[in-house]
Fold this sequence. Notes:
Layout: H1 2-6, H2 9-30, H3 41-55, H4 61-83, H5 91-109, H6 116-125, E1 135-143, H7 149-164, E2 179-184, H8 185-192, H9 194-200, E3 212-213, E4 218-227, H10 238-264
Antiparallel strand pairs: 1-2, 1-4, 3-4
Amino acid sequence: MLKKLIQEPLIHFVIIASIIFFIYDALNKESINTHKILISESRIEQLTNEILNSKSRLPVAKEIDIAIESFALNEIYLREARELGLHHGDKIIERRLRQKMEYLLDEMASIQEPSSAELNRFYQENIEQYKSPVTYSFTQIYVSTDRPKALLNKYIDDLWRLIEEGQTPFADTSMLPQQISLQSSQQIEHKFGQFFMLKLKELAVKTWSSPIDSGLGKHFVYITEKIEATPKPFLSIKAELVDDWQYQRRKKFKQIYEEELMRRYDIDIRKPKSDKAS
């Protein structure tokens, strides 16, 4: 019972939300004294690492002093700007703050890795997304429509006669391949167009079709092989499954978090009055 409760997304959200609100309160308490700038050991270590990364060497004492002064001055500017209310109504700042909140939520939601059972269940529930594509092998006989209608109809009838006699009909000259071997729907669509692909899906295997259209002309088609979509093996796509599982989890956490935020705030909506009756 306890194990099942711990695995519930809502419980995870409560923990994450509590941490976020704790951080918020802690930051607010630290900012009560707006004229005190704390340069901690961890901050100096961070500044040292920034110089190390940019210059590929450890900084000298003077460089550390300059970095500390620069950080302190930047912090003072930010606090003074907030005191003056300069951050209010700034769309760039507002957008950046929201992005940082969403990034923080994503990071915290992604901490947990799925168990083998959870990942296998996710795989089974979404198995349609993890199928190999349908593939086709076929022969196509291209017929150019760049001829008068009467001649086109006679030409098609002549080709049909050859098919009925058990012969392979001859094709008009084109840049299209006559033989297609084990290609996916997407690959075929790139060559022949979407309408051709839609018609191809309706054709029977190992029988000549009546001419089907494409944006290039008409085609007699003989499908020699059609391999239906099959689920990809679990182990071969395990990394992809983990990424997708975490993505869905982040979406769920964000949804629950936003619903909780909406409940915490009183939203006063004052729509403009309209002269027209609703």
